[in-house]
Amino acid sequence: xxxxxxxxxxxxxxxxxxxxxxxxxxxxxxxxxxxxxxxxxxxxxxxxxxxxxxxxxxxxxxxxxxxxxxxxxxxxxxxxxxxxxxxxxxxxxxxxxxxxxxxxxxxxxxxxxxxxxxxxxxxxxxxxxxxxxxxxxxxxxxxxxxxxxxxxxxxxxxxxxxxxxxxxxxxxxxxxxxxxxxxxxxxxxxxxxxxxxxxxxxxxxxxxxxxxxxxxxxxxxxxxxxxxxx
Length: 230
Fold this sequence. Notes:
The structure is a single chain. By secondary structure, the protein is α+β, with helices and mostly antiparallel strands. It has two domains: 4-99, Pnp Oxidase, Chain A; 103-211, predicted glycosyltransferase like domains (Thrombin, subunit H), CATH 2.40.10. The protein has helices at 4-9, 194-223, and strands at 14-20, 28-36, 41-45, 61-68, 71-84, 87-99, 107-117, 127-133, 137-142, 151-158, 164-177, 183-191. The strands form two sheets. The protein has a six-stranded antiparallel beta barrel. It has a six-stranded antiparallel barrel with strand order 7-8-9-12-11-10. The chain is elongated and about 70 Å long.
């Protein structure tokens, strides 16, 4: 059944993936938006033309997954009915939240960064910083003393064709001295909007993928039998 947290999170539509088991089309995997209708039911809404009447039958089991802050909310249950050509009603039998493994893809990147103790006013100018970042945290060097457990405001501008600005809050989990004037500070991201978290995850996964592709291309070139042997 739906938990109080799930009902609160799905009070309005949320983007989700729905996987429905069907005899004719096993593991039908679609993207939709979902919200709580009347517990234990949720309503799933699709784009025009996504649903085909002949592949959906009441009673088919399925799973709905969507982001819930820094976790994934999973709803398991059965298809109750088709409301119209774009909406399904899904009866939830169980739900849980679990960690999103994509959050832990860590990469080194050059970003524009603002950071400040939550008790102070944010700085006007961002600094160009080399950081280590993932969906769960960020590490960077700073001359500003920060202490373990301190809450810090962050504004991170991720590079790209269309740079994305991510604002969030972090908690200092460790500080390492890097000489007299600099400290390496590691922060856990503790407060962030789902769409901002997605921006970080997508950035990290894209950078990781490009790095793996470059290594594969390099390996392919080195092992290519077409290269002349000196």
